[in-house]
Design a protein that fits this description.
- By secondary structure, this protein is mainly β.
- The chain has helices spanning 6-9, 18-22, 27-32, 34-41; strands at 49-53, 56-59, 69-71, 74-76, 81-82, 87-89, 92-94, 99-102, 105-107, 110-111, 116-119, 122-124, 127-128, 133-134, 139-140, 151-154, 157-160, 168-170, 175-176, 181-182, 186-188, 193-194, 199-200, 203-204, 208-212, 215-218.
- The strands form five sheets. A nine-stranded mixed sheet has the order 1-2-4-7-10-13-18-21-24. A seven-stranded parallel sheet has the order 3-6-9-12-15-20-23, with no helix packed on it.
Length: 220
């Protein structure tokens, strides 16, 4: 049985927001509360963080190219790499050693440490676990076509999150192949691989390979 409580997905406590996130039973509850999470973290930041704009705090030594746009509050942690044309909007936390690459947009999301979003990606209202990686052109879609609330599909059940905008939740060390689209309310559990060009929905089990068209095999 797939387990999707926050503390069961994010088992590596490698985020400045980890304790806040696992304080919510389900990860989509944490996504809804990202503004509150950031409000609680900002007063705890030490002198190693520099305020470079209204609500924008960057670990000293992290270089922010002039082409990077930050609209809204953001915390960018030690060793993060921000590349040409990246766009952060809403409330965003970029963890230690993360990569946010060229022409990538991160909106109202949290990236655990070492998560990589390197090439032409969209990440909306999502949480990416430790060491997760998106291939070029991967989209984490956060809004259904009919604008109805996002629903999580789990073990034959449908859980209505009540959220109009909810992208994806990736566990630790998830690899998403180039050009894949994760539909709203997709959950990919840890150590799982998504094949390139896949259209993914639902809950994908831990330590598996998603080959497309709903075909899933266990990793050997």
């Amino acid at each position: 049985m797939n387990r999707i409580e926050s503390k069961e997905i994010f088992t590596i406590p490698s985020s400045i927001a980890h304790e806040q996130i696992i304080g919510y039973k389900y990860p989509w509850q944490a996504i809804e509360k990202i503004p509150d999470i950031i409000s609680k973290i900002i007063p705890t930041l030490g002198s190693e963080y520099e305020k470079i704009g209204e609500g924008v705090y960057v670990f000293k030594g992290v270089k922010i190219p002039n082409s990077v746009e930050i609209s809204g509050r953001a915390i960018i942690c030690e060793g993060a790499e921000m590349r040409h044309g990246a766009y952060l909007r809403g409330d965003v936390i970029i963890g230690r050693g993360c990569v946010v690459g060229n022409s990538c947009e991160i909106k109202s999301s949290i990236l655990y440490d070492k998560a990589c979003v390197p090439h032409f990606n969209y990440v909306g209202n999502s949480i990416l676990g430790y060491g997760s990686h998106l291939g070029a052109g991967v989209i984490l879609s956060n809004l259904k076509g009919n604008k109805s609330s996002a629903k999580v599909h789990l073990n034959g059940q449908i859980l209505d999150t009540g959220l109009r905008k909810f992208g994806a939740v990736l566990g630790n060390h998830v690899e998403v192949g180039c050009g894949a689209v994760l539909n709203p309310a997709t959950i990919v559990l840890s150590n799982t691989q998504i094949y390139p060009l896949s259209s993914v929905r639902g809950t994908i089990p831990e330590s598996s390979i998603y080959k497309g068209d709903g075909k899933i095999i266990r990793k050997i």
